[in-house]
Amino acid sequence: MNYRKNNSVLSTVKEWVLITVGIAVYTLGWTLFLTPNNLFGGGVTGISAIIQFATGIKMGYTYFVINVALLIASLFIIGPSFGIKTVYAVLLTSFGLNLFQSIIPPGIIQDFALSNGKLLCAIIGGAMSGLGIGLSISQGGSTGGTDIVALIIGKYRNVSPGKIIMIIDIFIISSSLLIPSYDPQGNPLSFVSRVSAAMFGFIIVTVAGNIADIYLAGSRQSVQVFIISRKFDEIADMVHSEFNRGVTVLHGEGWYTKKESSILMVLTRKTDVNLLLRYIKQIDPNAFLSISSVWGVFGQGFDTIKGNLKSKGIPSGFQKK
To answer: What is the DSSP string of 204-260?
Structure first.
């Protein structure tokens, strides 16, 4: 029985669509709310904005050039699949940063950005930036820059991407105080104005980092499912073949009926639960299920425990030989 016809194709299409949506949200957050107010965050996009405010060179060009080296590094360290998606993301982001600055009408910028004040724009722009980053990373892509650095570090250490990005961004924003800046009309900004912009930059990266973490935590949340069914063998085969998940069979006994029964325990991503329930219903509409959220799942197919025991100060006698 084929439960997931064309699942591979649909899954691939979904990944690319979500990466595209994430990039669109990310670039709109920057071009609609941040750059019109001479605001900037961190990462390569922040560096590109600082250079644009100082020289007039559009963000997209600088963004693309800086990311080339990081893209090459990601292909070797993270893998070719990630690299392909990141190439796509960087190209689309570079294009979007320049395009949206050119096509968004001044009236919309006035109503949405300039009229609402820098604080509100910093919060909205930061939230859109974080959401875009989260969408892209959750599908194996990245908007480039410090996102790639965060994923490279995250491959070897249990550190959230948002926290890594935030630390790097602090240095980038602080460096903006040493670079002259000009408003869209070409008037130079005073040092006090640059200090103010840097303070808003810290708000932007804080909001973006936390929103990215919140989104990624939700998309990676796992659940534990207990299934009691007379057709447990068919359900177990379906879970293994269609969801590529392991199944543990627990042997129990009904207290009232005094009959032995087999209980399936399945750990899977929360995003797969609805589809899993539909397939179980197709096999056994009378199956009894219990679903609960779990704090974390580590092992094959889920998260990996990262880090070195020695680096954590664990006595050698307790380390695995």
So the answer is: HHHHHHHHHHHHHHHHT-EEEEEEE-TTHHHHHHHHHHHH---EEEEEEE-TTT--E
